[in-house]
Amino acid sequence: NVTLKRIQELKGNDYVQMSEHENFGIAKDRNLIVIQIESLQDFVIGKSINGQEITPTINQWLGDSLYFPDVYQQIGSGNTSDAEFLMNTSLYPLGNQATTEQVGGMQLPSLPHMLGDEGYHSVTMHADDVTYWNRDELYPALGFDDYYAKEFYGEKDTIGFGPSDGLFYERSMDALKEISSNHENFYAHVLSLTSHTPFEMPEEKKGLRLPEAYEGTLTGNYMQSVHYADQVLGDFFEDLKEAGLWDNSVIALYGDHSGLHGKLLKSEDQDLLKDFLGERYSLLNRFNIPFIVSVPGEKEVTGVVDHIGGQIDMMPTLLNLLGVEPDTIYFGHNLWHYSENLLGMRYYVPTSSFFNKETFFIAKNSRFDERILDLTSNERIENDFENPSSHFEDERKDILKLLQWSDAYFESLK
Ligand code: GP9
């Protein structure tokens, strides 16, 4: 008996129908283009190294967009595919196994299904083999009308997993032109790939002049590959404008998960990142991803919104702009409208870890000590863990309830 009202109340919000939110439908009947960038973390946005911006395309675009700088990844062990699931369902991923292992034969309540009811044609685009992460089962379950995968993009200009993002965007653009000429409205979920670990770029695609200390390090390579991802994103944006698809679309972008983490990070990387950030590279920096939404021509839909959010909030935020009232259960909320939040985490930190408005509470297990990070200072804060009345304990229980509800709801859909 999970209801939207109960979900929102548990997170500390009064439930209000989407259609009563401010700016509901401000982008009604526009196409929707959602770009998921591989390994993109927020800490590079707006930053320069050696006097060169790392993401100049994104930085310039921010001025015409809503930028949510305080959004965190919530994926489980399904990594990129969990991010696809979260974005399109606003349900929690399963955690210890890739959610895509369980979706075969299901019909999930989802963004493609909801937009399908509004007459949208929906496609998803990714230059890898479609069986990777069981996407051949995920895409029908999500209700995409079509997908574009490895056989469409070919194997030329390969970097790491597949063809370069440059080639990927060019071919995707060809497909989008055709889709838009055959359908009144479309939704395209566009998933980049080049900035995947180990971030090793061919010489001719290295656009940054890095300081010597960064050369050949994981951190330097990461910056180099993100710089490339941003550069070809800029070409894609220009092509969308030229094709007349920019002005009548909502364009959103986010990072699927961190690129700099775990055993990959050597002590030299920690030092470089500390130097670059001006503070230690913490779990907050690691999980913080950008979320950017633009409705070209709508001045009202611009600015920095510092509400704490997660990948679970992306679908409701976009549905609000498109003026579509969800007809199913979802666990996020429209991030533009709500400033309170309670976000569950699992797998990469112990289940029942969470973000609230001010803090990141990391629960205890065999690998982690219980600890709390202040979202503003990025420092640890003290809690009386023995005191059962601590509000962290209440929120921790609420998060467990939310995760349980999401899992039970998912199970009921089988
Ligand atoms: C695989 C690609 C990367 O198709 O999306 O997945 P990841 O290893 O980042 O989960």
UniProtKB/TrEMBL annotation:
Where does it localize?
A: Cell membrane
An example Gene Ontology CC term for this record: plasma membrane
- Membrane topology category: Multi-pass membrane protein
Predominant cellular place of this UniProt entry's protein: membrane
Pathway as given in its UniProt record: Cell wall biogenesis; lipoteichoic acid biosynthesis
Say which family it is in. Belongs to the LTA synthase family.
Q: What is this protein called?
A: Sulfatase N-terminal domain-containing protein
- Originating species: Halobacillus faecis
Q: Which residues of the full protein are shown?
A: 212 to 625 of 625
